Amino acid sequence: MREITIGKNEAGQKLKKFCFYYFKGIPQSFTYKMLRKKNILLNEKKASGEELLSEGDRVQLYFAEETLEDLRKESETLRKLPKLSDHPWFTKERILYEDPEILLLDKPAGVLTQKATAKDHSVNECVIAYLLESGAITPESLDTFKPSVCNRLDRNTSGIVAASKSKAGARDLTRLFRNTDGRTAQKIYLAVVHGKCNLKGHFDRLDYVKSRNGNQAYVWMHGARRPKETLKYGEPVQIWTEIYPLDYNRDKDISLMLCRLHTGKSHQIRVTMQHYGYPVAGDPKYGDGQKNEKLDPELTGQILHSYQLRLENGTVVRTALPERIRQYFPNAEEQADLMIRKITQG
Predict the structure, then answer these.
(1) Residue 75 pLDDT more than 70?
(2) Under a CB-based contact definition with an 8 Å cutoff, are residues 60 and 74 in contact?
(3) Rg for the chain (alpha carbons), in Å?
(4) How many of the other CB atoms lie within 10 Å of CB of 190?
(5) pTM of the entire structure?
(6) Which terminus of the chain has fewer Cβ atoms in its 10 Å neighbourhood, N or C?
(7) Is 243 within 8 Å of 261 (Cβ atoms)?
(8) Do the beta carbons of residue 251 and residue 196 sit within 8 Å?
(9) How far apart are CA 35 and CA 255, in angstroms?
(10) What are phi and psi of 309, to 5 degrees?
């Protein structure tokens, strides 16, 4: 017999769902049969599987250990645990904030947030590897909850990535990133764009859709005729971005912009800046190839950085700016901080 004590990450779900996760790869009918035959009990009592689990509940599995291991077949997750050595970019200095529920990391440009192919290494696996190594989670706990990134940054966008360590953390971060109140939920980016950009204020009258594979976004003015090529992509939604100019580099003809997100759609800043005629420098998808080449022939991605995040508890988390911004705008941090104070206190 094996007894499992329900922890905070397992609580709140039905017993049957817990068993489905625990016996991965086994038909769900097996769980129902074992519940009927009393091979699976909840707190030493017969259960239907519909019971909601609470922290501290005990699930008894009346099987021989050998049978249990054969049934579970040790999920691929447990057989191939991620290792920190697969993520050479990660150091303890990359950790911006950590509490029992969430983890915030400073992702460099060029690193995937989530896997694109099975062979990729991403921030998701790095988070799990770090939490395993630090003892915050165990291999067994991955059966019922897998920590994951809650805000997906494009590969070449750098800055703050937020990951949940628990189900409570996942709920908190989901609520945070859905919050459109720019004053209390500060999701602030810095972008380098081509041209002398004087856009200033709230830009909330853009309709937005993305392709079914998520690789292309389209925007147009709310109320204007919808582009024909977007008709196959469902109903549009409105996006909302605050934009403020910080500095202009006359020699390179590029501007430093502060962008505060009220909505958070894929490629939102990149496609918004393109729409207004100031594409993000280095952007291979929505940018200007000739201008990118002139600025830096070796530039491989958009100069866009997730700079600051304000948590619901009032904690403000901020990153240091990468060299690809500071080389063009040495005073970027001071200028950004001054603007943030102005727009959040005004």
Answers:
(1) no
(2) no
(3) 24
(4) 28
(5) 0.83
(6) C
(7) no
(8) no
(9) 64
(10) -135, 130
Asked whether the beta carbons of 254 and 295 are under 8 A apart, the reply is yes
Angle formed by the axes of helices 15-22 and 28-36, to 10°? 120
pLDDT band at residue 73 using 50, 70 and 90 as cut-offs: low
Q: Could you tell me how many helices (H) and strands (E) the chain has, helices first?
A: 10, 15
Nearest 5°: the CA angle 76, 47, 49 is: 45
Report the distance separating Cα 305 and Cα 321, nearest Å: 8
For residue 143, which of 81, 203, 94 has the smallest C-alpha distance? 81
Q: Is 67 helix (H, G, I), strand (E, B) or coil?
A: helix
Q: 327: Cβ–Cβ under 8 A, 6 or more apart, which residues?
A: none
Tokens of 223: 């109320």
Two tokens, residue 275? 């729409």
Q: Has residue 195 got a pLDDT over 90?
A: yes
Which stretch of 144-153, 218-227, 246-255 has the lowest confidence by average pLDDT? 144-153
DSSP three-state, residue 76 = helix
The answer to whether 252 and 188 are in contact (CB under 8 A) is no
- Least confident segment among 19-33, 154-168, 280-294: 19-33
Average of pLDDT values for 195-217? Answer: 94
Q: What number of residues does the chain have?
A: 346
